[in-house]
């Protein structure tokens, strides 16, 4: 599956400019280069599969909790590839929604069961965060594509206003997720990459929209700031707690003055 995803993914990325999630599909369509995010994710999944087979990892209970999430994300990634290749908007919408659902479950599990090591976080948690970001970007792009093709204009506000509402929704939703645990930087960075690709296309490509381009750039900045602030806050509290524990230990070990 990983080989097919990488091999066909490269061809898909090169040819996707006119597709459902292509750069010209709607005001919220990112540059085609955004989907390169699948390649490091697939490579990490391969590494995680090998990592689980290490002797000291075979009894790790966390793999039982996260193994099915990683497998579900892999299957959905392959389904995403098939849906995009088949240019089926309805199927891609369903796959993207499923990716978001699995990603949210994964984030909840990460918050309850943090990784025991950096390797575990890089090979399991980070790819799940990027997969959630890909699902969010796909869901937004497909919905915008469908509404654009249908020439829908609810309340008569115009496509630009609704595109801005879409960006605000993504910003609020991702920020809420990133304010949990240690900021979920993999999700935040992947979303920032996606929003940057949207900003680039709206400022430099077609259809062009300065307001959407600037809005996407501002949203990317705010997501990065919120995730970084949360990571700094949690790490600062952890270091302070460690210093307090060390201070109490030194106080308990100091002999009493006579």
Tally the helices: what do you get? 8
Secondary structural class = mainly alpha
Give me the strand/helix succession. HHHHHHHH
Proportion in β-strands: under 5%
Helix-strand blueprint:
Layout: H1 2-15, H2 38-51, H3 61-85, H4 89-112, H5 118-149, H6 159-178, H7 185-204, H8 210-253
What does this structure look like?
It is a single chain. The N and C termini lie far apart (72 Å). The model has no long low-confidence stretch (mean pLDDT 86). The chain contains 8 helices and no strands. The longest helix is centred in the last third of the chain and has 44 residues. It is 75% helix and 0% strand. It is mainly α. Helix 7 packs antiparallel against helix 8. The protein has one domain.
Features:
0% strand; globular; mainly alpha; transmembrane helix; 258 residues
What would you say about this model in short?
The chain is mostly helical and 258 residues long. The protein has helices at 2-15, 38-51, 61-85, 89-112, 118-149, 159-178, 185-204, 210-253. The longest helix is centred in the last third of the chain and has 44 residues, at 210-253.
């Amino acid at each position: 599956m990983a080989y097919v995803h990488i091999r066909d993914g490269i061809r898909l990325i090169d040819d996707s400019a006119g597709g459902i999630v292509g750069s010209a599909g709607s005001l919220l369509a990112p540059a085609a280069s955004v989907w390169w995010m699948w390649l490091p994710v697939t490579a990490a999944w391969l590494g995680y599969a090998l990592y689980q087979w290490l002797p000291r990892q075979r009894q790790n209970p966390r793999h039982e909790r996260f193994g099915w999430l990683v497998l579900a994300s892999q299957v959905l990634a392959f389904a995403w590839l098939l849906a995009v290749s088949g240019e089926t908007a309805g199927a891609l919408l369903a796959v993207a929604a499923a990716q978001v659902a699995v990603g949210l479950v994964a984030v909840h599990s990460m918050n309850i069961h943090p990784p025991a090591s950096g390797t575990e976080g890089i090979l399991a948690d980070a790819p799940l965060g990027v997969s959630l970001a890909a699902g969010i970007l796909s869901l937004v792009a497909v919905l915008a594509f469908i509404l654009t093709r249908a020439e829908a204009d609810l309340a008569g506000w115009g496509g630009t206003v609704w595109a801005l509402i879409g960006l605000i929704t993504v910003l609020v939703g991702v920020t809420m997720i990133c304010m949990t645990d240690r900021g979920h930087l993999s999700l935040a960075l992947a979303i920032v990459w996606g929003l940057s690709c949207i900003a680039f296309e709206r400022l430099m490509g077609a259809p062009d929209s300065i307001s959407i381009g600037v809005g996407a750039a501002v949203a990317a900045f705010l997501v990065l700031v919120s995730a970084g602030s949360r990571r700094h806050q949690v790490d600062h509290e952890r270091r302070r707690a460690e210093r307090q524990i060390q201070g109490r230990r030194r106080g308990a070990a100091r002999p009493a003055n006579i």
